[in-house]
């Protein structure tokens, strides 16, 4: 069933698994913020290529995250389409030029400037999504919680995040188990069945699964209260990792990307790189 999980921690070896959760979290946050803030295509392409390289180095199989990648592709395409439909001349306004590539459509004539702007939007997903997948797939939930606490987040919130990351794969596993048992009884919920029947059948599975999850949450919260969780202001973490040379290299690399973003802000006199100047 593990291959059917949407996303979650998978044990493995390699450079990405050797880094501490704190350094991976800082790298992900700093690089993602830089990629979202800038519209300099040169930097965005560089970050995107670097993200794809890290994805390859992490040895994550495509089929393990296929659902996330497909969903991201659909969402990114819809986002670009909506931007074009509601503001087809936004790129012309930004770059102060108009080079018509596909004419005869009136207000919706496609320009090179609009295409360049939409390309930047799509490239941003290549910058952030691989990094997010790498972090979630190579970071143990307890290490993730300890990293949040290391950067200043309350350990109560960090522990709640850890429980959520642990519980989501279990819910997915239980859902697939229930669905397979229903299919064994003759209820067709796979792609072979009709769309509406599949939707109704899956919804019928989700509702009891939600109520069962609420019961589990109540049991876990009661157990934590009995153990006096949250009594002290601080706590130690069994899975916490001290920062090593590799971790400092990752953090410094992220800081350099942030500095490059700020320098490009100054050189471009803003967030946008304009090749038509």
UniProtKB/TrEMBL annotation:
Presence of keyword Membrane: yes
Pfam families: CbiQ
Membrane topology: Multi-pass membrane protein
Subcellular location: Membrane
Transmembrane segments: 25-53, 65-86, 117-138, 247-267
Keywords: Membrane, Transmembrane, Transmembrane helix
InterPro entries reported for this sequence: ABC/ECF_trnsptr_transmembrane
A single Gene Ontology CC term: plasma membrane
Protein name: Energy-coupling factor transporter transmembrane protein EcfT
């Amino acid at each position: 069933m593990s291959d059917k999980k949407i996303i979650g921690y998978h044990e493995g070896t390699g450079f990405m698994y050797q880094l501490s959760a704190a350094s991976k979290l800082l790298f992900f946050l700093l690089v993602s913020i830089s990629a979202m803030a800038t519209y300099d295509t040169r930097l965005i392409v560089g970050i995107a290529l670097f993200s794809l390289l890290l994805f390859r180095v992490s040895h994550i199989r495509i089929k393990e995250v296929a659902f996330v990648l497909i969903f991201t592709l659909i969402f990114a395409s819809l986002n670009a389409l909506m931007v074009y439909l509601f503001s087809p001349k936004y790129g012309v306004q930004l770059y102060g030029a108009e080079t018509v590539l596909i004419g005869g459509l009136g207000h919706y004539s496609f320009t090179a400037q609009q295409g360049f702007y939409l390309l930047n939007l799509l490239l941003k997903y290549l910058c952030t999504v691989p990094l997010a997948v790498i972090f979630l797939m190579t970071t143990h939930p307890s290490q993730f919680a300890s990293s949040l606490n290391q950067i200043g987040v309350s350990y109560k919130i960090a522990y709640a995040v850890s429980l959520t990351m642990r519980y989501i794969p279990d819910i997915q596993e239980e859902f697939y188990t229930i669905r397979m048992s229903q299919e064994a009884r003759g209820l067709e919920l796979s792609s072979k069945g009709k769309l509406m029947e599949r939707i109704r059948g899956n919804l019928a599975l989700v509702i009891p699964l939600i109520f069962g999850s609420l019961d589990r949450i109540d049991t876990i919260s009661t157990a934590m209260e009995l153990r006096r969780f949250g009594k002290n202001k601080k706590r130690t973490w069994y899975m916490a990792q001290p920062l090593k040379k590799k971790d400092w290299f990752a953090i410094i690399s992220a800081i350099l990307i942030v500095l490059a973003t700020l320098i490009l802000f100054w050189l471009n006199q803003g967030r946008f790189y304009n090749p038509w100047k």
